[in-house]
């Protein structure tokens, strides 16, 4: 065991050393590059600011003001004429600065550019910004900054990195000794279990690893494996369901479109087929919209904007919308709601909930039956019940009616061919309001959906 612990500890130490070395090197270089880039960008921006001032007011007073400003900073500004002669300088222009100015390209973009960025070897970094007045070059603004500031910063950064590296190595050695002697064995078991899970072997088993954090980790691995197996099954079922749901309307659309295109198809039949194509297109559009809504709910990217809604006119407005469809089915709808009831809900989202439940009640009820909407307060909570006298839901199906793509009617007929997403959306919207939804149903008696807010 000691040999195994030593080998694992040594390998772990070497791996961490390499990883830390690479990380430190990359981080060090990135910080230096970022800091130097910031200095260069700040210098160029400063020159562009002076350039903007001069373009707005090119006078001796303005030039002198800029020179006085820069004379009190760690940067130096030099203003030259178009021919290269110096018009103004905030401090003495050295020979190196003159050499940098001579390296000016023939064409300088208006946003300026960096002339010298070699902070390691040069004495100054430099930028140039052209002054354009009436579309003509009136001069050039050169900005210089000593590289000593950057070098001092890098030297301090190097000291911090060296100290951090030494402390990291010391701390890492202590941790490795502890890990290899105390937790190596159970971690190896957990590692082997996770490898089996990654290969698809989800029915893993682990020995009891104690009641500490490692034991909790082992239990979490078991739970994870079970959840992954459930998720895998649900994913397969979801993909199969959505594939079928998309295939069905597309099959109708393609089939009836092919028939309607035939030259021997009479106009009456074409109109009927086009109507079917339109219906299936609407269903397909609704399915995609519902999938989009579910995706937003899963990502918590949809918003609930609650307001204190007066429930009686709220439900009366909804009933007016669904009344024509109920009348067509020779069904009646009864609303039972007190006058003074209010509830904190999002009216737009909750209208979607109620209409979905009423639409289900209409589809699964026979003509000459009643749908009752009861809204009342009980024990400080608002109840909203939608009750029909329809086919009802079998007892074995009740626990799954809020699952995505689950449908009690397995025939998937065109008349009752919903997407199986409506009740799932209803449940998520109700829960987003902090409420619950319950269902009571008996075959051939009816169904009651009770929303509690």
From TrEMBL:
UniProt keyword list: ATP-binding, Cell membrane, Coiled coil, Kinase, Membrane, Nucleotide-binding, Phosphoprotein, Transferase, Transmembrane, Transmembrane helix, Two-component regulatory system
One GO location term (cellular component): plasma membrane
Top EC group: transferase
Pfam hit, one: HATPase_c
HAMP domain mapped to chain residues: 181-233
InterPro entries (UniProt xref): HAMP_dom, HATPase_C_sf, HATPase_dom, His_kinase_dom, HisK_dim/P_dom, HisK_dim/P_sf, HssS/ArlS-like, Sig_transdc_His_kin-like_C
UniProt membrane topology term: Multi-pass membrane protein
Matching SMART domains: HAMP (SM00304), HATPase_c (SM00387), HisKA (SM00388)
Keyword Methyltransferase annotated: no
Superkingdom, taxonomy of origin: Bacteria
One GO MF term attached to the UniProt entry: ATP binding
Protein name: histidine kinase
Origin species: Neobacillus cucumis
């Amino acid at each position: 065991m000691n040999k195994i612990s030593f080998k694992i500890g040594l390998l772990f130490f070497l791996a961490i050393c390499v990883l830390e070395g690479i990380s430190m090197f990359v981080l060090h270089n990135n910080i230096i590059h970022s800091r130097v880039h910031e200095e260069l960008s700040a210098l160029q921006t400063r020159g562009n600011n002076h350039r903007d001032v001069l373009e707005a007011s090119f006078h001796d007073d303005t030039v002198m003001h800029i020179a006085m400003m820069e004379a009190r900073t760690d940067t130096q500004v030099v203003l030259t004429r178009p021919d290269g002669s110096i018009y103004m300088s905030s401090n003495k222009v050295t020979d190196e600065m003159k050499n940098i100015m001579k390296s000016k390209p023939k064409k300088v973009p208006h946003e300026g550019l960096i002339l010298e960025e070699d902070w390691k070897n040069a004495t100054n970094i430099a930028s140039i910004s052209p002054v354009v007045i009436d579309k003509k070059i009136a001069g050039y603004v050169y900005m210089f900054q000593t590289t000593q500031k950057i070098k001092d910063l890098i030297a301090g950064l190097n000291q911090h990195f060296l100290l951090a590296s030494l402390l990291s190595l010391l701390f890492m050695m202590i941790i490795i000794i502890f890990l290899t002697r105390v937790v190596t064995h159970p971690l190896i078991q957990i590692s082997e279990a996770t490898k089996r899970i990654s290969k698809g072997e989800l029915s893993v088993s682990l020995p009891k690893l104690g009641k500490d954090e490692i034991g909790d980790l082992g239990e979490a691995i078991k739970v994870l494996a079970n959840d992954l197996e459930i998720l895998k099954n649900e994913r397969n079922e979801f993909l199969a369901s959505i594939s079928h749901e998309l295939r069905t309307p597309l099959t109708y659309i393609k089939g009836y479109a092919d028939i309607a295109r035939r030259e021997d198809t009479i106009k009456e039949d074409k109109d009927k087929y086009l109507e079917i194509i339109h219906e299936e297109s609407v269903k397909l559009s609704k399915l995609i919209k519902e999938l989009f809504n579910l995706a937003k709910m899963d990502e918590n990217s949809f918003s609930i904007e609650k307001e204190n809604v007066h429930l009686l006119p709220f439900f009366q407005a909804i009933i007016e919308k669904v009344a024509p469809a109920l009348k067509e089915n020779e069904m009646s709808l009864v609303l039972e709601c007190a006058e003074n009831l209010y509830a904190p809900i999002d009216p737009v989202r909750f209208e979607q909930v109620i209409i979905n439940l009423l639409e289900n009640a209409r589809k699964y009820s026979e003509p000459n039956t009643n749908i009752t909407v009861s809204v009342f307060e009980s024990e400080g909570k608002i109840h909203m019940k939608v009750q029909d006298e329809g086919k009802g839901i079998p007892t074995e199906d009740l626990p799954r009616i809020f699952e995505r793509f689950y449908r009690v009617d397995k025939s998937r007929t065109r008349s009752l061919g919903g997407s199986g997403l409506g009740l799932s959306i209803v449940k998520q919207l109700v829960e987003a309001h902090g409420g619950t939804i319950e269902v009571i149903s008996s075959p051939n008696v009816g169904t009651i959906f009770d929303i509690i807010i």
